[in-house]
Amino acid sequence: MVFTLKKYITLLTLMFLAFVVKAQEDEVTFEMAVSKEKLGLNERLRVDFTMNRDGDNFNPPDFEGFRVVMGPAQSIRNSWVNGVRSYSKSYSYTLMPTEKGTFTIGQASIIVDGKAYKSLTKKIEVSAAVEDPNAPPSAESIADDNLHLVAEVSKSNPYLNEAVSVVYKLYVSNSIRVTNFRPIDSPKYNNFWSQDMPVQQYSAQQGTYEGKPYQYVILKRIVLYPQKTGKLDIEPLSLDVSVEVPTSRRDFFGRPLYTATNKTVSAGGRTLNVKELPLEGKPENFSGAVGKFDFSVTTSKKSLNASESLQASVKVSGSGNLKLFQLPEPNLPSALEVYEPEFDESIKTTIAGMQGSVKNNYTIVPSYKGKYPIPSISFNYFDPKTEKYISLTSEQILINVIEGPSNGSASNNTVSATNKQEVASTGNQFQFIKLKTELKPKGNSYFFGSTAYLLWLLAPLIFIPLAILFGKKREAIRGDVQGNKIKKANKLSRKYLSAAKKTLGNKEAFYVALEKALHNYLKAKLKIETSEFSKDKIAQLLAEKQVSQATSDGFIALLKNCEMARYSPFSNVQMQQDYNAASEVISTMDKQL
Fold this sequence. Notes:
InterPro entries: BatD. The chain crosses the membrane at residues 446-470. Keywords: Membrane, Signal, Transmembrane, Transmembrane helix. Pfam families: BatD. The protein has 9 helices and 30 strands. It is α+β, with helices and mostly antiparallel strands. The protein has 4 domains: 21-127, Immunoglobulins (Immunoglobulin-like); 139-274; 292-411, Immunoglobulin-like; 481-592, Up-down Bundle (Four Helix Bundle (Hemerythrin (Met), subunit A)). The strands form 9 sheets. Strands 11, 12, 14, 15 and 16 form a 5-stranded antiparallel sheet that branches. Strands 21, 23, 24, 25 and 26 form a 5-stranded antiparallel sheet that branches. The chain has a 4-stranded antiparallel sheet with strand order 1-3-6-5, with no helix packed on it. β15 (205-209) and β16 (212-226) form a beta hairpin. α5 runs antiparallel to α6 (507-526), α6 (507-526) packs antiparallel against α8 and α6 runs parallel beside α9 (572-592). The chain is elongated. The N and C termini lie far apart (114 Å).
């Protein structure tokens, strides 16, 4: 009986132990382990999240105060010992602290069999950088020493409106490899007229940086024309670069193994000291041209008949700020009818600046016979290389109108007023007055029954209905409030467009008038109040009216220019171009609407 009781107790004990072991096997554990709880600013921290059961939807913490250098690296261990299965799965991260202080690594989460589990938090203390002469250099330090972004500026002390080129180069040592890059912060060239020259293809070239061999890639090229004097800042260009740096480990063939890291590089800000153009020798009619130019005035013909037309071209060619000054205007005789000039430009922008030509083409139509001189015109520019003002003068051109009606002042404009000519007698200067008259009888005419009598009789019957119709039409026009608003807006549009033309050269007044003209035009054509809509809404309405995309974009661009003119410098040439563009866009929209 005693033996049976002992056997029974032993059996219960074994069953209890088996139950405990089974319960331990079924229990899910999810833990976080760190390589150290105190580290220096230049050291790395390894964080492992380990679980004894496979799970889904692993969600790491945000690692505030640290930057993830590597990870997550996943590893699984599965083994059987004496018939007992052992399983573990871990997610590993390598972190680099971003600043000193005490930081808390938050909870990670995992879902196992539909149930969520979270790890505990850990506090990490980051101190100042520690010295470890035996430690291998980090990937960040290797990237720092072998990766450089440089902004090469052609001139740090330019004159006002003198071309300055900026070339951004990324220098890369042969010991590391760049896999990708993206701009973080692009500079805004305030107080400069800028022209970007896109790089079509990135190609590595051999060069040197601080006396050492490097490869470099040209990332960005831009030409700047300073519009203000004094110290002007060029904002830095910043890039996020993905690089691969070698480690101390090697593969089976003895080649170094690489590790990936990200590095932020910046070209740094640059400051230009822009000089004012010298006052000594500055011509009175100087229009702001800076560079090296040639000047010419030509005509398509020098002999023609009255009412025929000829073309006169005022042309400036060379290299410099071709888009930022006004061409001189010819002073033509009043007897020649001259139309508004057509502006034409052929400009190519290179790393050295703008090159090409600009010209105004005038259409001239003489009305009378005679000889008309086109006086010489002068064009002045400043040459920054010689630091002197250069004046170019065209030759006088004589237009000979061969046939046409005579004009006293025009036909004798080449003859001196003191010249006298003898009058030759032809014998027919004097004729006798006839003293005898030849009278013819006049037939009798009566008003009654005549055609005039019938017209006067029928006139009231015709004009009274017309007057009634005219009166009703005027009443309908007065009652059409919406139509009157449209007519008024259309009239105001033409008025302000004309006012804008008269204020060319005065930036504030010009763009205020141009903006009012554009807004009133929209009121007239789209029957809207533009103050209630954004530019996107206006573009949408124009698209609904089947206005072409190019015309719509041109109209929106003019509205943007009117707004930008309040804060940015606009040249007289830009104002003339905007006025021409407004006239063309309104004319095109009229046809499409």
